[in-house]
Amino acid sequence: MKKKVIALTVIAFLIGGSMTFAATNYYAKMLENQQGQMEAQIEKEYQERIEEIGTQVHHDMVMFVETERLRVLDEAQAYMKQKLDQVQTDRMNAHADAIQAEADRILEELKRKVDELTAN
User: Fold this and answer.
1) pLDDT tier at 120 (50, 70, 90 boundaries)?
2) Which residues contact 26 (CB under 8 A, 6 or more apart)?
3) pTM, whole model, 2 decimals?
């Protein structure tokens, strides 16, 4: 009886192993048949991602251009203000020098006038 059970177990194992191999081969073939579909899916996802990247790069570069435009404008305005402040200072100094020179001239004339008046 034990020999019969062992023999049946061995036969069942061999049959099961053969069926498992056939089933494995079937599923491997099924996967192989889907390769084209998977390649098409990968290509589609690749194209979508490339388009997303292009859109994102464009958006980021537009933002960067705006940031740089504002930076350049701010620096140019600060430079212009500095230059115009210097022009203002130079003009004021030139006028102040002329005013001081005229004030000194008038003072000297007034002193001479006072000297003339006190000399009499």
Assistant:
1) confident
2) none
3) 0.52
